[in-house]
Amino acid sequence: MRRLWAGLVVCALLAGVAPASAQQTQLLVITGLSGDPAYAEQFHAWATTLIDAAVERYGLAPDQVIYLAEKVEVDPDRVYARSTQEEVEAAIEVIGGRAAPNDHVFILLVGHGSYNSGESRFNLPGRDFTAEDYDRLLTTLAAQRVTFVNAATSSGGFIEALSGEGRTVVTATRSGSQWNETVFGGYFVAAFGGGGEAESDQNKDGRVSVLEAFEYAARRVEQVYESDGRLQTEHALLDDNGDGEGTRDPDPLAAATDGAMARTLFFTAADGASIEGLPDDPELRLLYEERLALQAQIETLQATRGGIDDAVYQAELEELLVAIALKSREIRQMEGDPAPQR
Q: How many other CB atoms are there within 10 angstroms of residue 130's CB atom?
């Protein structure tokens, strides 16, 4: 009887919460002051890799994407405006006006950062914005779920400044004192559609979450430093539980840790058609779609966590995880793949 009542409570809560996949994504990409033509080219390549993936792979409409760059002439067809303080603030206001409650706003900073006297900055043409300035700007997006990725040097200080409810904050470094050139940003954007998506899509559902992109990029950074025989000078962090402390190893299934929100955040087009790569075979495609439905149930359940008893939450989560495992086994058997090694 207790389990029946618990199930009814959860069902009632789930009925009132829209799954993450039903929400649209607004994308803002900002490339900052380069200081060198080689950096300008690299920053533009990283920015357009993410934009191309969002538009071509995940179906975002042009009015869901804003690109601010150091120079408009680098790509006049795609660059919305220069990445000055005034244009950054205006772009966030535009997105705030477009986005509906619970929509996903994805902001990526690519460039150089600095840290001085306890103050973290992202270098822009003209005056810079500090981490605290971005925190102020994000208050416009209080009704949305925000992913804020600072792929710049000395970006670690943005975690504490921007951490808060409904925000997923990712930085390329763990502190402001890590000021050497970073490569995290290149791998992070590649996870969505720049050649790394096959590996980053860990559950093979045809889409890449913010958590999957973070884990892929952090892993690749470690590998490249190790293969080059260099001391690693950048350590990425992710914070999505609002405690102001990032982690390199988020665990979305553990209580009071980071990762639960990031695993539910994807690029989602206006029509919700953001899943690519499902098989053509009708029976196999149905299994994939059923697994996606189970994942959506988990995402929705996670959104209700604060409103239900933790024991009920854990029990329902366990049932859904078992169901996904069984569905994945059905898929492997139909595809003729061996079971994964433990």
A: 16
**Can you say whether the dihedral through the CA atoms of 198, 200, 151, 170 is positive or negative?**
positive
pLDDT at 186 over 90: yes
According to the model, what pLDDT value does residue 272 have? 47
Q: What is the DSSP letter of 240?
A: -
Element of type H or E holding 220? helix 210-228
| Token output for 223 | 């590998």
Question: H or E segment at 215?
Answer: helix 210-228
Chosen CATH of 23-264 out of 3.40.50.1820, 3.40.50.1460, 3.30.70.100, 3.30.1490.190: 3.40.50.1460
228 near 220, Cβ under 8 Å? no
- Global pTM reads 0.79
Share of the chain above pLDDT 70, in %: 86
Dihedral sign, CA of 28, 32, 37, 39?
negative
What are the extents of the domains in the chain? 2-16+279-335, 23-264
Q: Which residue has the higher pLDDT, 148 or 14?
A: 148
- pLDDT (tens digit per residue) in 76-90: 999 999 999 999 999
Q: Single out the residue of 50, 145, 120, 135 nearest to residue 89, CA to CA.
A: 135
Amino acid at 73: E
Cα separation of 192 and 316, whole Å? Answer: 30
> What is the model's pLDDT at position 117?
85
Q: What is the DSSP letter of 175?
A: S
Between the CA atoms of 53, 54, 56 and 60, what dihedral angle is there, to the nearest 10 degrees? 180
Confidence check: pLDDT of 300 > 80: no
